[in-house]
Amino acid sequence: MPVQQLKDYLDKANVEYMCLSHPPAFTAQQLAHHVKIAGDRVVKTVIIELDGKMAMLVMPATWRVRWDRLSRILDTDFVELADEQEFQDSFPDCEVGAMPPFGNLFGMTVYCAEVLTEQPELAFAAGSHTESIHMKTRDFLNLVQPMVINQGFTRPGTQKPAWLLKNRKRPEPREETLLAGY
């Protein structure tokens, strides 16, 4: 979907948006940098294979997928990152890696990180590495109707809960404890 088709779709839906041109951005983090917006407001679009079908995962640029948690929340044994070769034909006229987060326009189920829905506005690649769309989150949610999920993601650098750290770090057995059994 070239940028113009996306604009036409948004215009037809009577949605306010802004389209910006910027230097090439090949990651959502680069897009955030170029348009000077916090990474939590920039959408990272990830294509996943879920039980043999392609689906779209949208989350903040600053977050990463936790595959074990995502599998659990989606109640499946098979979820993985889709290979670009397998899905590039599903996004005609889009540059690889610049797919807009409108999976509904491409026949894909969209899963959205709940934390993204808490942002007032979002920015995302508009099918090209040099143009992005900026719009209100509520309009995005109304148009896409994603399945909002609250697990399966992590923000790098966040502190793990104390109880989790305690369970992971088991103390080495002391020598006197080992000898006490003899």
TrEMBL record:
Residue ranges of domain YbaK/aminoacyl-tRNA synthetase-associated in the record: 22-142
Pfam families linked: tRNA_edit
Molecular-function GO terms, alphabetical: aminoacyl-tRNA deacylase activity
Protein name per the record: YbaK/EbsC family protein
Endpoints of the signal sequence: none
CDD domains given in the database record: YbaK_like
